[in-house]
Amino acid sequence: MSADSNQTRRVYFDHNATTPVRSEVVEAMLPYFRERFGNASSIHFFGQENRDALDRSRESTAALIGADPEEVIFTSGGTESDNLAIRGAVRARRRLGGSSHIVTSDIEHPAVLKTCRDLEGEGCRISYIPCEGSGVVRLDLLDKALTPDTALVSIMLANNETGVIQPIKEISALARSRGVTVHTDAVQGAGKIPVDVGELGVDLLSISAHKFYGPKGVGALYVRRGTPLEPVYTGGSHECGLRPGTENVPGIVGLGEAARIAKKELGREMKHIGGLRDRLERGALERVGDVIVAGGAAPRVPNTSSLVVARIEGEAITLRLSMLGFAISSGSACASGANEPSYVLIALGLDPAIAQGGIRISLGAFNTVDEVDAFLGSFPKVVARLRELSPLK
Question: Looking at the 3D structure of the chain, how many domains does it have?
Answer without folding.
Answer: 2
